[in-house]
Design brief:
four-stranded antiparallel beta sheet; 96 residues; 4 strands
Length: 96
């Protein structure tokens, strides 16, 4: 069985950055939309940005660990009649 190239892992890591930033931005906007303009002050914004940044880092780390293990446990094999692909970290899947 051959392993997938490292380029797939690196491209996934870059997409993880965008996913984690998007999720964090959406959560911060939902949190801030719960307050009226009179209730929003500088401390609330600073705290929200700090928690959002930490959340973004946490989401990125989790996605990165999952992506690395996913590609490390994935492999493919070329035969004369078919292509066999085994992939997955938590849930194993075999495609022919």
């Amino acid at each position: 069985m051959k392993r997938f190239t490292k380029k797939l892992i690196f491209s996934r890591l870059i997409s993880n950055i965008f996913v984690s930033i998007f999720i964090t931005f959406a959560l911060v906007m939902m949190f801030l939309s719960e307050f009226e303009e009179a209730e929003i002050n500088e401390e609330l914004i600073k705290g929200t940005v700090l928690i959002g940044g930490l959340l973004s880092i946490f989401v990125y780390i989790v996605l990165t660990i999952y992506s690395i293990f996913y590609y490390k446990t994935s492999a493919y094999e070329l035969t004369e009649k078919e292509i066999i692909c085994r992939r997955g970290f938590l849930f194993k899947k075999k495609s022919i």
